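Quick start: read one record
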Amino acid sequence: MEFREKKRWGFFGLPFTFTTYMVTEELITVEEGFINKRENDCYIYKVQDVELIRTLGERMFGLGTVKCYTGDTTNPELYLTHIKNAKNIKNFILEASEKARLKRRTMNMLDIGADGDIPEEN
């Protein structure tokens, strides 16, 4: 499965920008620019969590912003801004990232600040 969406204006949801988002089972690709093109990829297995943000204006025009928390060095927080089908894309990214992590046998470790040092009692 693949999603391809264009970034849209918040006003009327018109796609008059030069940013394209492509989400596949392996990669999230952000392609920006008209004169100077920039393409940035993030492997889907690096996505740790996904958040859907929908402002009042976005809800009025059927848009949303998907925020991906990743382990990627170039984009620790990857935004797919003002896109249609935002909820479907968020759900797809969550499922695809879990499948990709299981396939690659990767594991996320969470640092909760426990150093293993036990304070001594007097």
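The domain at 3-103 is CATH 2.30.29.30 (PH-domain like).
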